[in-house]
Write a structure and sequence with these properties.
Elements: H1 7-13, E1 25-29, E2 32-35, E3 40-43, H2 46-49, H3 58-68, H4 81-93, E4 98-102, H5 105-123, E5 130-134, H6 143-148, E6 165-168, H7 173-179, E7 184-189, E8 192-193, E9 199-200, H8 203-216, E10 219-223, H9 238-241, E11 247-250, E12 261-265, H10 267-270, H11 286-299, H12 302-325, E13 329-335, E14 338-343, H13 351-360, E15 363-364, E16 366-367, E17 372-375, H14 383-401
Parallel strand pairs: 3-15, 5-6, 5-7, 7-10, 10-11
Antiparallel strand pairs: 1-2, 2-3, 4-12, 8-9, 11-12, 13-14, 14-17, 16-17
Helix pairs in contact: 3-11, 4-11, 12-14, 13-14
Keywords: Amino-acid biosynthesis, Aminotransferase, Arginine biosynthesis, Cytoplasm, Pyridoxal phosphate, Transferase
Main location: cytoplasm
Modified residues (N6-(pyridoxal phosphate)lysine): 252
């Protein structure tokens, strides 16, 4: 059958805020994807750390299909069983005692930042409204979340931006000490900076952030949109560090490809979001919550989490072996199945060139800035797919060094 749309259609009908690849994926299974022409790709991108169980995982398809035959949407005038079941599961597995559902990571962070200011106003004063986040961080694309994010390029042209937001150096305890005060209502940290270059936090840095927040009556927020739902090798990355936040944001892998976000917090902090203070029309949607519950049930299993750690080691060893032949990278870093290959000085700024070379070899990758190639594959990717993908990765690097 002749295709009715093509990549050229994008340029004709879509707002030009994205620059998608030249091919259009139309079908996926596990960690393989096929485009309109039937060409196959190995997927190491995972929908930007979203497809936690790959494409069309049979248990997710069955769960979604079953829920689709029952109830799609009732709004938050009512509650629903999948939302309550998912919230009960999340609170049973984490530090949290209360959950708010929304549709994306940006919305989860928006809720977290609003809650932090409301909590400070309730328990201290409206003067305690400063939010601190890390330079080079990323927390979403709403005007509030992009302002909290520490990358000025994302706020260019959108001024005036929300006030009361300041930034400090990631992994720099002294920088945080200098920035925090009794006017600070929240400190926001990604346990692994994702868009900022796949850079894990130092354990001492997160421990110090917890201590400093306690000293100054500030809430500690962990943005686990990219690291959560099993991607780190633990259900959430904070568990890797032994430092619990007051608020945690989750999305991406949480829904395994179905849009959902969640803000997790404690009983005490949650009380500042009384009736009418915040909301989301689609938040807690029965379809999304049913799928997310199945995702969490699967990825929280010891077998899957152990598999993430084993696959991390397989990826790192494979990339390092390739790099010994074609030395483009000076470091492979990250946690679990969120990996960053940092280009050396000779190839600095050419991460997108690596993506294009990989695409030509039938491999889907990501970037994290101009000089980091990012991998965020399925948490249950088959070893055979890892090996085939690495083979294609090697072929791509060979073309760049020829």
């Amino acid at each position: 059958m002749k295709n009715t749309v093509s990549r050229a259609t994008f340029d004709q009908v879509m707002v030009p805020n994205y620059g998608p690849a030249a091919f259009i994926p139309v079908r996926g299974s596990g960690s393989r994807v096929w485009d309109q022409s039937g060409r196959e790709y190995v997927d190491f991108a995972g929908g930007i750390a979203v497809n936690a169980l790959g494409h069309c995982h049979p248990e997710l398809v069955a769960t979604l299909t079953e829920q689709a035959g029952k109830l799609w949407h009732v709004s938050n005038v009512f509650t629903n069983e999948p939302a309550l079941e998912l919230a009960s599961l999340l609170t049973g597995l984490t530090f949290a005692e209360r959950v708010f559902f929304c549709n994306s990571g940006a919305e989860a962070n928006e809720a977290a930042f609003k809650l932090a200011r409301k909590y400070a106003a309730d328990h201290f004063s409206s003067d305690k409204h400063q939010i601190l986040s890390c330079k080079n961080s990323f927390h979403g694309r709403t005007l509030f979340t992009v302002s909290v994010g520490g990358q000025p390029k994302y706020t260019e042209g959108f001024a005036p931006v929300p006030a009361g937001i300041d930034h400090f150096e990631f992994n720099n305890i002294d920088s945080l000490k200098a920035a925090i005060s009794d006017k600070t209502c929240a400190v926001v940290i990604e346990p692994v900076q994702g868009e900022g270059g796949v850079l894990p936090a130092d354990p001492a840095f997160l421990a110090a952030a917890r201590e400093l927040c306690d000293q100054h009556g500030a809430l500690l927020i962990f943005d686990e949109v990219q690291t959560g739902a099993g991607r780190s090798g633990s259900l959430f990355a904070y568990m890797e560090y032994g430092v619990a936040p007051d608020i945690l944001s989750s999305a991406k892998s949480l829904g395994g490809g179905f849009p959902i976000g969640a803000m997790l917090t404690t009983e005490k902090v949650a009380q500042s979001f009384g009736i009418g203070t915040h909301g989301s029309t689609y938040g807690g949607n029965p379809l999304a919550c049913a799928v997310a519950k199945k995702v969490i049930e699967i990825v929280s299993s010891p077998e899957v989490l152990a598999g993430v750690r084993a696959k991390h080691a397989r990826f790192v060893a494979g990339i390092e072996a390739i790099n010994a032949k074609y030395p483009l990278f000076k470091e492979v870093r990250g946690m679990g199945l969120l990996l960053g290959c940092v280009l050396n000085d000779a190839y600095a700024g050419r991460a997108k060139d690596v993506l294009k070379a990989a695409e030509a070899q039938g491999l889907m990758l990501l970037v994290a800035g101009l000089s980091v190639v990012r991998l965020a594959p399925s948490l249950v990717i088959d070893d055979a797919d890892i090996e085939e993908g690495l083979k294609r990765f090697e072929a791509a690097l060979a073309t760049l060094t020829a």
